[in-house]
Amino acid sequence: xxxxxxxxxxxxxxxxxxxxxxxxxxxxxxxxxxxxxxxxxxxxxxxxxxxxxxxxxxxxxxxxxxxxxxxxxxxxxxxxxxxxxxxxxxxxxxxxxxxxxxxxxxxxxxxxxxxxxxxxxxxxxxxxxxxxxxxxxxxxxxxxxxxxxxxxxxxxxxxxxxxxxxxxxxxxxxxxxxxxxxxxxxxxxxxxxxxxxxxxxxxxxxxxxxxxxxxxxxxxxxxxxxxxxxxxxxxxxxxxxxxxxxxxxxxxxxxxxxxxxxxxxxxx
Length: 268
Prior knowledge:
4 helices; 3-stranded antiparallel β-sheet; alpha+beta; 12-stranded mixed β-sheet
């Protein structure tokens, strides 16, 4: 997580399963950008299960600003308006941090430079009818330029269970492809949506000049019905829906919240 601070020393806390802390000191890394220097504050967190992970916590700004994330055009999924969806369900709003996608791209940069995909899991809690994404887990994974397979997933499950989080979505990169949902992506998204209807997929496509990211879901009931019956693996085509509706669509219920704190656990 990138956050601005004055130069100097920062405190780092080693936390065990009983949440006792002992302070250590370390120098923060510095990233130079075109306009200013930014420093990364890293906290090492030791858990009883899974193995040690890295946790980055976004500082809480003064005053919240919640903004809707605009949908894309018909070339990248469904072209319906922000409030229109093919689903017959009433879906609850989801809030994500304004920095989540930016910070994920920074952690994925090494893979992106090598034309390898990176994926992460989004954990959220439900409060007063709204999901708040507070945790990004980057599991151990095996990647190619067009795929990313999480391994040792029990580690990610343990973190979610310890924090009573719901798997409300996932995020992954298309390092050299356009912003869209492949057939493999759709089957992954289906597995999330079966558990949580509001689950969504964020696709980060840094080389796509027309749309660098998209937030998608499988259309319901149309797309969900197709994927439920599909037994194919790997990359494969899906038939068009009989009513002409898309198999996946842009999400209209995801908002950026500037006042939302979140953690990043990098298990790689």
